[in-house]
Amino acid sequence: MMKMEKTAKKYDRFSKIYDLFESPMEVMAFSKYRKKALSIAKGKVLEIGVGTGKNLPYYPKDVEVIGIDFSRGMLEKAERRRKELGLKNVKLLLMDAQKLEFEDNTFDTVVSTFVFCTVPDPVKGLKEAYRVLKPGGKTIFLEHMKSESKLLNIPLYLMDPIMKALVGTSMVRETQKNIEKVGFKIEKVENLFFDIVRLIVATK
């Protein structure tokens, strides 16, 4: 079985308790981070790894959102949330971030929040994000990643095997470097929780 399929199955199983599992972090910090990140989304938006739809309440009212995820279980939760919020400007699709089924230069904004720590081949996924973004469009990355501090990395390395086994997530990816590697021009980096959680805005 391919890596992506294995990871998707982990998320299908985990989807039942995912929101409960993350709720302490969501209440303390993540919801505030999401609100800040998504306030700058414009036009036609692609959200890669929409998960259970935690970002949906925070999008500006005038955007059109397509949210994709590789897990049916997570998408079912997101669809329930979309209906509860009464959002008619949101469409949810089952899709692999590493193989996006969209034409080049389709979206004004591409969003990912806590996603590229889990995509099995993050560079491949980022190349796809770059491909479908319009020239001059913006990408909004809210991601956790390896710190520049060796001390801060100690707990991340300790958590890494547990998170990989649970949902296929790596705590120590160098996501900012990967973003630059595929050709994005970084406009802004804001450290939200030391430099472990960063808000990165980049353009094509």
Q: Helicity range of the residues?
A: 40-55%
Number of domains: 1
Distance N terminus to C terminus? Answer: 34 Å
The CATH architecture assignment turns out to be 3-Layer(aba) Sandwich
Q: What is the CATH topology classification name?
A: Rossmann fold
Give me the secondary-structure category. Answer: alpha/beta
In which order are the strands of the major sheet placed? 3-2-1-4-5-7-6
- How many E-type strands? 7
Overall pLDDT score? 92
- Count helical runs: 6
Shape from CA axes?
Answer: globular
Which percent range describes the beta-strand content? 25-35%
Q: Please state the CA-atom Rg, rounded to the nearest Å.
A: 16 Å
Q: Regions with pLDDT < 50 over 5+ consecutive residues?
A: none
SSE order in H/E notation? HHEEHEEHEHHEE
CATH class: Alpha Beta
In oligomeric terms, what are we looking at? single chain
The biggest sheet, with number of strands, parallel, antiparallel or mixed sense and barrel status, is: 7 strands, mixed
GO molecular function, one term: S-adenosylmethionine-dependent methyltransferase activity
Protein name: Ubiquinone/menaquinone biosynthesis methyltransferase (UbiE)
Organism: Thermococcus onnurineus (strain NA1)
Pfam family, one: Methyltransf_11
What attributes characterize this protein structure?
204 residues, alpha/beta, Rossmann fold, 7-stranded mixed beta sheet, 6 helices, 7 strands, 41% helix, globular, S-adenosylmethionine-dependent methyltransferase activity, Ubiquinone/menaquinone biosynthesis methyltransferase (UbiE), ubiquinone, methyltransferase
